[in-house]
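Q: I'm building a small set of examples for a reading group on sequence design. Run inverse folding on the following structure and report the sequence directly after it, with nothing in between.
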């Protein structure tokens, strides 16, 4: 119960409900939407109303100044100029045919340069390989053409000095590649008629080239070439074997077999 000394306030009932939670929700809504605060302000003393109006004027003036400054800044803001970037035209891409042609031209140029280098190396090798004297090619009866001449040369090569001289003589023929060098040395040693009568291993009861002293002479002669000095013995032997196998096709042998057939 209220006491006798309690202060009385004017109350206005805006809503009522039996459920407490719903009433609390309505209280919050009334606080936001009603004009109770305005009425309370109207009941304030005059001096408090003046203070409120003064504060409103200060706030309003400050807001007006900010708006004015914003408009002034907008008026004096520099105008952005549109810039245009000139796009360079796309480079002209050559066709694949033109590129392939240029590559072939460059490859041909490289081959020519390599050939010149090989020729110079061959000249240097030949000049270094020349002994104090040049062996006489006729002394060994080269190129050999019969089995009898081959046997006679084998007897001659038992002399180390004669073997050395023949190695020097055959080493002077040179060559641009290993295959070229082996072919030139063998061609200087024997003709196709004798080459058809022998083979590397002695198969079919033919003389075996691998058992001849002439084989070591050919190997040493090939290695005297600066371009082939680093090749292995096996590589040289394979080319000798192949050269002897193809002897029947050289000097018209293939066409003669075709005519007989």
């Amino acid at each position: 119960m209220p006491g006798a000394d309690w202060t009385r306030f004017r109350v206005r009932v805006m809503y009522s409900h039996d459920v407490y939670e719903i009433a609390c929700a309505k209280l919050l809504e009334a606080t936001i939407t009603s004009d109770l605060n305005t009425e309370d302000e109207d009941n304030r003393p005059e001096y408090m109303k003046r203070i409120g109006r003064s504060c409103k004027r200060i706030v309003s003036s400050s807001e007006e100044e900010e708006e004015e400054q914003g408009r002034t800044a907008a008026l004096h803001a520099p105008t952005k100029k549109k810039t245009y970037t000139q796009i360079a035209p796309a480079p002209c891409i050559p066709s694949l045919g033109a590129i392939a042609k240029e590559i072939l031209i460059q490859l041909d140029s490289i081959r020519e340069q390599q050939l010149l280098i090989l020729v110079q190396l061959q000249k240097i090798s030949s000049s270094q390989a020349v002994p104090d004297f040049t062996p006489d090619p006729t002394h060994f009866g080269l190129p050999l053409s019969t089995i009898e001449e081959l046997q006679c040369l084998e007897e001659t090569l038992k002399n180390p000095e004669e073997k050395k001289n023949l190695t020097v003589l055959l080493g002077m023929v040179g060559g641009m590649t290993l295959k070229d060098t082996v072919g030139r040395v063998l061609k200087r040693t024997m003709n196709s008629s004798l080459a058809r009568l022998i083979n590397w291993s002695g198969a079919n009861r033919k003389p075996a080239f691998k058992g001849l002293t002439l084989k070591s002479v050919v190997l040493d002669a090939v290695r005297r070439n600066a371009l082939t000095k680093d090749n292995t013995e096996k590589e040289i032997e394979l080319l000798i074997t192949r050269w002897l196998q193809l002897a029947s096709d050289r000097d018209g042998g293939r066409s003669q077999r075709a005519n007989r057939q």
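The two ends are 146 Å apart (CA to CA).
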